[in-house]
Specification:
Elements (H helix, E strand, L loop, with lengths): L1 E11 L7 E3 L1 E4 L9 E6 L1 H11 L9 E8 H6 L4 H8 L1 E5 L11 H19 L5 E10 L15 E2 L6 E3 L7 H11 E6 L6 H11 L2 E11 L10 E5 L18 E4 L7 E9 L9 E6 L12 E4 L1
Parallel strand pairs: 3-15, 5-13, 7-8
Antiparallel strand pairs: 1-7, 1-11, 2-9, 3-4, 4-5, 6-14, 7-10, 7-16, 11-14, 11-16, 12-13, 12-15
Helix pairs in contact: 5-6
Length: 305
Amino acid sequence: MTTHGFVYDLGARTTTQGRRFAAKLSSQNGHETAVPFKANVDYSAVNEYVQAHYRQADYFAKNHLDEQVYNGRALQFSYSNEKEMLRENGLAIIASPLQNTIVWSNLEDVQTAYLPELEKIVQDLFPNVMGYCFWNPMIRGEAYQNSRSSDENMPTASIASMVHVDTDVGAFDLDTLLDIVDKNKVHAFTSETAQSFREMAREAILNRHRRFIIINFRRNINDHPVSSAPLAILSTRYEDVLAFPDARPSDESKWYIFDSATRDEVIVFYQIETYCKYQICSIVPFRTMMGGVMGRRDDPLISEH
């Protein structure tokens, strides 16, 4: 299950912004591989996108590159807590045992029984946040076809097959971005309930120059750990204060997966971060399919932005 979160008023905003991408990888030998492992990454879709929208050729040096994929759990173990991990790398995995039985295909059930769990995560990660909303929840999995939501049913989608730009807010002005979020939101919180989420967010960002982020939350909704096409994320570094699309990721950027994610864990990563202390701005969500040997092909995820 994937869900997006739009969180604002997190402090003063700088001009540097972050982006995210996504893809499906294969290990070099096509067999199940322990992390870290080598994978062939198809960057062609990203390069095409950046060329078309930003007139930049070869954003990544080649359309296909062999990349090392690292263990996100091992990286997180080196930090004191999830907040540090997220702040320094733009990604983290958070223990989040579900207290209720949830009918994941039912949008109302997701809203009433699952989103409160995500609220706890947002409030723990950002205790001084002024407002946030969840939008565009979706069930993703290799066995799923693309379908639209209805008043009762959750939308579904298959996994992304190549590295891609995920939520490129640079393609919109602020009002258009907020319109998209507002149209697709399933829950919103503001500290001043007299104003709408959109009004509060716009005033904070535009007039008070406050920081905002777009987060992706991903949870495995199967009883068994994810064993096929786990989410992989590029923790990106830049050599300058600029980020995507004005600068290319440096050689310090690394791909990570959180292997064997369970239904009692949520993977959290930034899709855009408007304050980049260490130029850790662009994170690339993509999926790795390690030769199809990692396990079942029907692992659904709940994804929310």
